[in-house]
Amino acid sequence: MRFELISECPVETTLNVLGNKWVVLIIRELLKSPKRHSELKKSINGITQKVLTSNLKKLEANGVVYREVLSKKPIHVEYSLTEFGKSLENVLFSMQKWGKELQQSVKGQN
């Protein structure tokens, strides 16, 4: 974990780790199971190759994601969550619960 991610405010620290919506969606997919780069790209609607690669590198540098080279020829790389990354499951669960309640509230207003 990089020191610059830590803030005096716990919410800001969490946002520093999560960074953006793509990071949250990457973590969501890796909570289901380890995945290859192509599997992640396919499962996250709208993410570009460049954005996925950039975010995976940041997550690896921050100790959230582990990158394992399974074979060299042809190269086969798989991404999985570290124990630290898995600790974000409750954060994502809370986001999912809140989002679902919002969706139901909006549907009820129409």
Automatic annotation (TrEMBL):
One of its GO terms (molecular function) is DNA binding. The keyword DNA-binding applies. The keyword Cytoplasm does not apply. It comes from the Bacteria. Residues 9-107 form the HTH hxlR-type domain. InterPro entries: ArsR-like_HTH (IPR011991), HTH_HxlR (IPR002577), WH-like_DNA-bd_sf (IPR036388), WH_DNA-bd_sf (IPR036390). Keywords: DNA-binding, Transcription, Transcription regulation. This is Helix-turn-helix transcriptional regulator. Pfam families: HxlR. CDD domains: HTH_ARSR (cd00090). Coiled coil: none annotated.
